[in-house]
Amino acid sequence: MNKTELQARLESLTEEIDFLRALYEAELSQMQSQISDTSVILTMDNNRSLDMDSIIAEVKAQYEDIANRSRAEAESWYQSRLQATAGRHGDDLRNTKQEISELNRHVQRLRSEVDSVKKQDARAKLEELETALQ
């Protein structure tokens, strides 16, 4: 892979992470709106004496607990996906850096060979000229 391909790949992976974050935020917002839109309808039975405040508080506590667990589960799932994606791309990046390093060493070696061949050619031409001048 060349540098342009790697940059394009990095950009697409960054866009994927941004997309996943936006998706997570949208899902979280949707879940919160569903929870907040939920209403409890109670019919009053006048034959019994009900402590409505404690019942409402208990139901509210249960729904808040459910919402908190759902939020924590969604966050955990998102973090695990993000870590997995980051791990994969981190490995790819390390491999690519290693490949670039190897290619740079190869280029350096080839440049040394070219310089050596140029020097040999210059020496040969110099010898030819010296021979021709004698």
Structural class: mainly alpha
What is the CA–CA distance across the termini? 55 Å
Report the mean per-residue pLDDT as an integer. 87
Q: Helix fraction?
A: over 70%
- For the secondary structure, the number of strands is 0
Beta-strand content: under 5%
- Uncertain segments of ≥5 residues (pLDDT<50)? none
* SSE run: HH
Total helix count? Answer: 2
Determine Rg (CA atoms, Å): 35 Å
Largest sheet: none
What is the molecular shape?
rod-shaped
Tell me about this structure.
The protein is mainly α. It has two helices and no strands. It has helices spanning about 5-35, 50-134. Helix 1 runs antiparallel to helix 2. It starts with a helix and ends with a helix. The mean pLDDT is about 85. GO terms for molecular function: structural constituent of skin epidermis. It comes from Amazona collaria. This is IF rod domain-containing protein. InterPro entries: IF_rod_dom (IPR039008).
